[in-house]
Amino acid sequence: MSLALDPAAQDLLFREARTANTFTDEPVTEEQVRAIYDLVKYGPTAMNQSPLRVTLVRSAEARERLVPHMAEGNRTKTATAPLVAILSADNEFHEELPHLFPHFPQAKDAVFGERPVRESSAAMNAGLQAAYFIVGVRAAGLAAGPMSGFDHEGVRKEFLDDDHTPLMIVNIGRPGPDAWYPRSPRLEYEQVVTSV
């Protein structure tokens, strides 16, 4: 059975998309980032909690503050990418629930009144949204370079606050020379899917 999505779009989003390690110097515009967000905001999260927060690192000063927190192998590409996004989970997402989940406004306190419950839920749902964000970057015809190799606590202290947990850092732009490592193997259907 074929997919409803056009094969060219399938390639753009998945089969031909790769994690970029180098980028051209072509800027990523505010309009492109807004278009990405305006698409991916429709991806589902539990109780529509939408805990992902995006911090765009645009200025040279901010870049200089970020690069030392990156793992050694991620520093050069982060220093030279046209745009860098810090994706974090907002552990106080429940404050928005009366607006985002209006048919059960009591969820703010009844379900998410305790911080450990919020942190667990925010991490899982912001992780989902981070994946949507990467696919959205690809949908914009750009390449994403998501990374978890960084000092999470250092980035939190430098750019966020105690209510936000950094999840990943994503370099964004047009792929540059030698942008791709060889594609790694993937698991086959039978290795992943079990019917019961």
Report on the structure:
By secondary structure, this protein is of the alpha+beta class. 41% of the residues lie in helices and 15% in strands. A 4-stranded antiparallel beta sheet has the order 1-2-4-3. The model has no long low-confidence stretch (mean pLDDT 96).
Termini gap: 22 Å
Beta content comes to 5-15%
Mean pLDDT: 96
Biggest β-sheet: count, sense, barrel? 4 strands, antiparallel
- Main structural class: alpha+beta
Helix fraction by DSSP (H/I, runs of at least 4): 40-55%
Q: How many helices?
A: 9
Indicate the radius of gyration in whole angstroms.
Answer: 18 Å
Query: Judging from the principal axes of the Cα atoms, what is the shape?
Result: globular
Spans where pLDDT lies below 50 across 5 or more residues: none
Counted beta strands:
4
SSE run = HHEHHEHHHEHEH
Order of the strands making up the biggest sheet:
1-2-4-3
